[in-house]
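A favour, since you know our structure tokens better than I do. What I am after is a single protein written out in full by you. Could you add the entry underneath, on a fresh line?


***
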Amino acid sequence: MMEIITGTDRKAEVLIELVFSDGVYSPELPLSAKMKERCAHFWFYARSSDEQDILIIGLGSRARFNLEILREAAGNAGRAIRELGKKTAAVHPACLEEVFGSRVWPAEAVTAWVEGWELGTYVFDKYKSAKKQPLVEWLQISSEQQDYAGAVELGRMRAAATSLARDLCNEAASDLNPGAFVARIRQIFAGRNVKINVYEGEELKQRQMNGLLAVGAGSKHPPAMVEISYTGDPDAEHLALIGKGITFDMGGMNLKDARDLSDARFDMGGAAAVIGAMDLLTRLEAKAKISAIIPIADNVPDGGAFLPSDVVRYPNGLTVQVVNTDAEGRLILADAILHAIRSGARQVIDVATLTGAVGHALGLKVAGIWGDDEYAARFMGIGEQNGDRIWRLPLVDEDEELLRSPYADLANLASNPYGGANMAALFLRRFVDAKARWCHIDMANTVQVQSTRGYKVTGATGYGVRLLADFVCEQAATSKRGGES
């Protein structure tokens, strides 16, 4: 583990210089450079062993600087230094005054830097014969003696929880089938202040979790519903975090067709986000009362798989005609939402890699959110701060008629191809109790990236971990202030 140090008693091999495109470059360094592109980097190599290598990291415009840019800069710096094989580094103190107004880092900046550095140097090499490069041994972030232990530990916990979600998504589907996923969850939370219930087989039938049973019917790996209960404050309002856990999505009998379908293993990104958030929240001992509910299944074709035209009956009385088996996520989320309501939750947040349509609406960097006005606004504000960006999309009541079926109460896919992400949200809303506050997050477009940049590394992003955890922590803090007043 990299050591974070302060003071100037040790000389680093690499000096990191942070530069604004519209700032004044430090006159103390024997070079002149301005980085116009945000997070671009450039090396000035030492001429002798007595000198340091200098790594210039661009921060873009000073007016637009925020902690997310600092995380990106840290990720780029950590990766560049590791790839060069250097073991020690320091951020040049002369640049800090321009960045923070002082040579002393504020605690939140330390947390952001550590978070960005560790996520930017993340490597998933489980299946590679050549393992990852050695890590940097220590990093100096201040020329002054400061106690940053708490800020550093927080940054590490946030990065570790996000990396956990990345690991789960990046796993090969053969190693993370539904049964293995359940075992992995038990392993992750062993010894934690949680209670885990796993509903399988006959118990799923008794609880009428018929959407999950239908979707999982085609796989040799039976489906399961996992419930992780955490009580950090028994008086807190009961919150359910629901994450879609399709460990591999071939589309069922509506078979997906593409040259490379390996990304179908990312369809449990919502479940990974909830697990990562719970990992962080339990480590932080958050003052909250949470049920994490994770429906898990494979959606694959087989002689026993569910078919288009099948009708699924839910315990709230609704019937759903399956018109397309590749619209399976909403079928299992409906089970989870109903279970959350039966368990007493009055706040319900579901997160899922649900539709390709959300990417057509919002691109590849911003997830979509529907539901409760206040919650959606809070999520948007949190996402702007922590990098899990999200944007609210509409629930148009009149569009519910597009989900009608001549054979059942609802169809699992709308009768026209437009607004597919909105249609999915409208479908899920039918399963939410009127007394509950609910938000739906569609993160299908943000679950992975195709190239490395900043603190995101090719493959799974771990999107949603920090978004959910920060929402819970902010809510706990708000409730505490309200109680004190």
In short: The chain has 13 helices and 20 strands. The longest helix spans residues 149-170. Confidence is low (pLDDT under 50) at residues 26-34. The radius of gyration is 24 Å.
